[in-house]
Model the fold of this input.
Amino acid sequence: MQSQDVAQRNAPASAGAAGPAVDIEQAEAALVEHYPRLVRLAYLVLPPGLGRSRRVLTAHALAQRALPRGRKQTSVIPAQASGRDADPGYAFVRLRVLRTALEAARPRKGRPRLSPLPPLLPQVWGLRLFPRSGGADELSLDQRLSALSGPARAAYVLRGLERLPDADIRKILDSAGVDKPESALTEANGVPAQDALLSSPEFDPCSLQARPTDLMRRRQHTKAALAAAAALAVCGALVALPAGGWGPDGAAAPLYAENPAAQAALDPGRLTRVPPTAWESAARTDFSVWPARGPLTGDTALLRRALAVWARPGETVRVSITPGTQTGGPAGPPQLLYAGAVDNARVVILYDGLRIVRYAEPKDGTQGAALDFARVDGATGAEASALVLGRADGNVRYLTAPWVKKAAERDLMKPDAAATDLTVTDGVTTPLASPALQPGSCTSWNVLQLTDASGTRLATDLGELVPARLTAGRPGATGEVSNVEGLRAWAPFACSLATERSGGVRSVNAWAFAEQPLPEASGTGAWACTRAETWRGDGTAALAQFRTPGGPVGAIVAKGTDVPACGPRDPHVLAGVLWKSKTGIWYLLAAGGPDTESIRTNGEVTATGPGPLLAARAKQGAKAQLKGTLAGGRPIDGLH
Done:
């Protein structure tokens, strides 16, 4: 149970003429508090040619070495404490991180030169660590940044991530040893500003995925030591790629074994291709009856690279995994769903009966391949009606099922507004705004509206391959969000979908379970429970939300994770919130579902009342425990 309030952030402070002296304790406190931000900055400035795993470890090493040796005060630092944190300690460690990252990015004899790393930590053996992969927007930005010089990357990051003005950036670059800060700023101007992407998981070296190194090669190291020269020659032959383009297996790792079954699964000639009209006579509507679409379904080289990277993703491949999804290669020849050009990438989508796999590579160049896994076991009908083809410039494109007759874009926060039709060509929609890429405050939430012979349904992009299905109604009797009542039930609570991003969400239901007259004749508050179901089963989330009269959006007041409340197994809920009236008096408001016979509270607020609603005077910040009784005498606890 929470108080309903709004937190305001002060505007950034401007830089002063000169920074104060910083002692070691102040610098250490800033490093601990802002460590993720400093590591992200180092990761973005380091040369991408290092590879993602090495960049991660190097970024952490540089941030951990940012403190000066000894316990004495440091000298006065340049004026650079502007931006989001006007903190001299933070400005000091940021400058040291930036200086060492630029030193690592400085070319020497055609290669990036790394400053010496600490002899101990961080070190990782037997694993490759890399950030969570993003979409086409992040891939495009990473490629653009890789083409910049180190100082220009630093200028771009200071401008976009730290939100610093150019005058302060010049001072920082000069203090970091950059010879021509003005030239770095000019070069950075060549990359369009995409500030929100710099804060995305793609560039977060503190939120990592782990994959093993080459297991077969590791097991054979002891034997290879007896014939080192021969082993080196074999390894060199395996990893060599022809210059000027993709090799036959693209960005895949070296081949592990000549297993006939595994080789058959990687043969593009054996891919399953479903006829275009197979779905019309099929007994079920799922991904198994999707035809192969796209202009590149006959590109054998592209399909071979996609299959090889799926089975053996190399170190440079960005891998994204929906929680609970296995990442191994296909057990047999998978089904081809799509192959074609999407925005700035060539995309292949495959299906193996349990998973959807999306392979993407840039149209130009041989770096930056991406591989995305999504679990879709048991998906039928509405859940198998669309897939994400790609995201770019804040928009998303979908590949729709062959049975979809019409696609449209709708703002979930405007239930009375008409939907905007989308053009669908060979199953591919025109771009629509993606809420998964929506930065800052939530003022709209655009969803995909699909129509087929069975009706109209909504789905939303939550940052994964499969859009989440949206439903409305009491658990156990939910329906599609296709009428005005369903749209109005979702409208005030659409922004809460942001909490479910990248969680492997299968569907989200909104249940308006109560309306409560407020004390002092202040109108009627609305209660709703939104519940997200996942593909893997666990990780479900039930959110109790409350909207005051006239409020544009609801507020999340309670949350339950991996609980049956608000779901088909337990279609009941009880939640409370502290609410302040216009006269300044605080009240505890509590509400349950329609079958709640009584509610009581204990703790700092003691009250009881019959029925599904309760209002009692309280103090600001008071804590109370909610208990209820359902029809038939069964007790129920409040979400908290």
